Amino acid sequence: MEQLFINEKDFNKIRKIIKENPKREIIFSGDDELNRKVLEKEKIDILLINQKERKDYDKERNSGFNQVLAKLAKKKNVIIGINLDEIIESYGKERARIIARIKQNIKICNKNKLYMEFVSFKYKKSQILKKGLGLVLGMPTWMTKKLK
Predict the structure, then answer these.
(1) pLDDT in tens, 15-58
(2) Which domains does the chain have, with CATH numbers?
(3) Residue/partner pairs of 53-61 with CB below 8 Å, 24 or more apart
(4) Residue 22 DSSP class
(5) Do the Cβ atoms of 64 and 100 come closer than 8 Å?
(6) Phi-psi region at 109: left, alpha or beta (left = phi > 0; alpha = psi -120 to 50)
(7) How far is residue 61's CA from residue 40's CA, in Å, rounded to a whole number?
(8) End-to-end CA distance of the chain
């Protein structure tokens, strides 16, 4: 199935793009408020949560994903996306922070029985490498079986 990546800031434009492309697999990525609004009101296939530009709080990580979004994603049957390009292109402490946030999201997805998927626009990686990375990051085997 052909994929369509939407990274728009205006909700009405997002809604229009989704309605114009009913046959495509829709990957959406936006800020936290827009992610929740689109998840509540529109039919998307993958919610891609970017980790690179985030700032952590004093006592906890800001991974952009929480129990509320997890329940909405479960209800709408949405897959949570991990941006593989961010992991590959980051170095040092920044990579460690991104991986820690992804691990936190994996735990939330595991509790809510949500599937996750690696999404990459620049690099093509094999299914075996993605499964291996998923297992190293803490994905359970039932989650890695569906990785493409």
Answers:
(1) 999 999 888 999 999 888 899 999 999 999 999 988 887 777 76
(2) 3-144 (3.20.20.140)
(3) 54/101, 56/97, 61/97, 61/100, 61/101, 61/104
(4) T
(5) no
(6) alpha
(7) 24
(8) 12
pTM for the model = 0.90
Between 5-9, 72-76, 121-125, the lowest mean confidence (pLDDT) is in 121-125
Q: Count CB-CB contacts under 10 A for residue 8.
A: 16
Residue 20, amino acid: E
> pLDDT tens for residues 64-111?
888 999 999 999 999 999 999 989 999 999 999 999 999 999 999 999
The first and second tokens of residue 48, run together, are 């891609």
Handedness of CA 16, 79, 50, 64 (dihedral sign): positive
Residue 46, beta-bridge partner list: 27, 79
